[in-house]
Amino acid sequence: xxxxxxxxxxxxxxxxxxxxxxxxxxxxxxFMWSYHATEHGYASWKLLLGFLPAVPxxxxxxxxxxxxxxxxxxxxxxLVIRALLWGFAVxxxxxxxxxxxxxxAPPDTALPMMNVDLFCITALFVLAIQxxxxx
Amino acid sequence: xxxxxxxxxxxxxxxxADLAAQLEVSRQSVNAIETGKFDPSLPLAFRIARLFxxxxxxxxLDPETEKPQ
Lengths: 135, 69
Description:
The complex is a heterodimer. Chain A is mostly helical. Helices cover 76% and strands 0% of the residues of chain A.
């Protein structure tokens, strides 16, 4: 993660960066495992398997306000909030387009399952661009 | 909001990183304030004023009074 490799990160930013990365990796792993499990005969556990990949994301939603409360740099706080807004906006836009496409001709892939990943990737991407912009 | 932060910093031969370290903010914050892309909160503005030993209004320029008469 290039964001985490920066030398000038405060201990708080490094700690929360590691926590976010861990939850992101956990989301991906649980998503892959749940996807594999639903495909291979664990259909009776559908609800639990569907909920499982969202658990790390809920953890992240608990961590982000804690980070924002503890971050002393108000400018960085603003950048993080802006990145989070983009993170929420992009999956919503994609879902809206996907919803209309689904109504016209249902595609094979259920893209909304990837919303968490899309949120994390967008937020991190936007944050990296903004930090680079103010170098 | 326009400000004299870059001038005051240059007078003391401080880099953006030096100023950021003294204000306990990121270098990006100093850059954004200097270029007028981000207006600091009152507590940070007071910290800047204290650091340069100048009143806030001599560092941050009031956009109203900047207008041509």
